[in-house]
Amino acid sequence: MENPFKFGTVVNGKYFTDRKKEQLFLTQILNSPNHAILISPRRFGKSSLVAQTLGESHRESISINMQAITSMDNLAETILKRALAKHPLQKIGHYLANFRIVPTVSVNQISGQPEFSFHAGTDHQIMLEDAFSVLEQLGKKERIIVIFDEFQEILKINPSLDRILRSIMQEQQNINYILMGSQEDMMKNIFLRKKSPFYHFGTLIHLDRIPRSDFKNYLTERLDEICPRASAEELSDEILQFTTCHPYYTQQLAFQVWYQMQSGTAAKQAVSEAIEQIVIMHDFDYSRLWDAMNLTNKAVLIKLAMLQTDFEIASVNQPTSTVFSSLKRLIHSGIVIKDKHYELDDPFFCLWIQQHFL
Ligand SMILES: Nc1ncnc2c1ncn2[C@@H]1O[C@H](COP(=O)(O)OP(=O)(O)OP(=O)(O)O)[C@@H](O)[C@H]1O
Ligand SMILES: [Mg+2]
To answer: Which of 40, 125, 304, 306 satisfies CB 3.0 to 4.6 Å to 44 for a cystine?
Structure first.
């Protein structure tokens, strides 16, 4: 029997649950001439929500991950490449004819796909204006949806890229933008700071964990296939108790529980064995991550693992400002998340720390 849980890649269709409110809201934004800003910690389900919503909308979309972009030229080239992946060269070539500086088209020797490159020294603003004008043209008949993932990276690509992009994007009529990001502080800085060019550019959607009752139904329905209903419900409760409804870790643990049960583990031990197995599988990564931490980070993480929801900055025996900067760094790297309180993102890493240092 196929394991019905999926983690690590975008999920939609039968692997997707809940997010009804967010999906409806996102759909309404996309059905109007507005833009959406989607923020959540890593692996909370931004890409999955967008994939599920787009799958039902049947609109054309183009998606670019800003983390993979190395420069402004590269952004312009990538936009053209993505447009070409969906439309014939003839059509895109027609738009290129109007470019003020026409890029060179060549064929990538490895992928066999056409690629664009602008000549060194080309004015960045002109280059980006021209590339974005292709997206605007593609949305002429029906508004196109353009998704920029990890949008906060624009500031690392070039400090003036926010100003340039805003000046281009605000003039466009045929595009709905979805701007996503997992660095909450940076995303808020871009969209909520009055002086930022992107101040109030779109409607903010903040993605939370999946509500417990819905996630429980999702897990129970699937675990039901390999054990009696009452056991499936108990297993679901145990899984969610450990993962606190984090979408990724819940699917990861449920996958392992299913596997344990299929391998003959009794329902009573299935969750604890699955947790143990996952911690063992990640032992090497966790050790390496730990070794790279400075002493304050380690002290903060140990307190977090020990006190969990009761963690307070004062509980770490170090100056408040030092602990605060450490938390900031840990949040920035996605190891800690701040929801209602500070907590470790990964419950398996939390357990690993408990096993090693408490
Ligand atoms: N609505 C959902 N229903 C069930 N599982 C989900 C849902 N959303 C996310 N997940 C689980 O979480 C994992 C991560 O989801 P996704 O990649 O969409 O998150 P993300 O926020 O885009 O992550 P990243 O920050 O890494 O880009 C999925 O592989 C899946 O296991
Ligand atoms: Mg994603």
So the answer is: 40
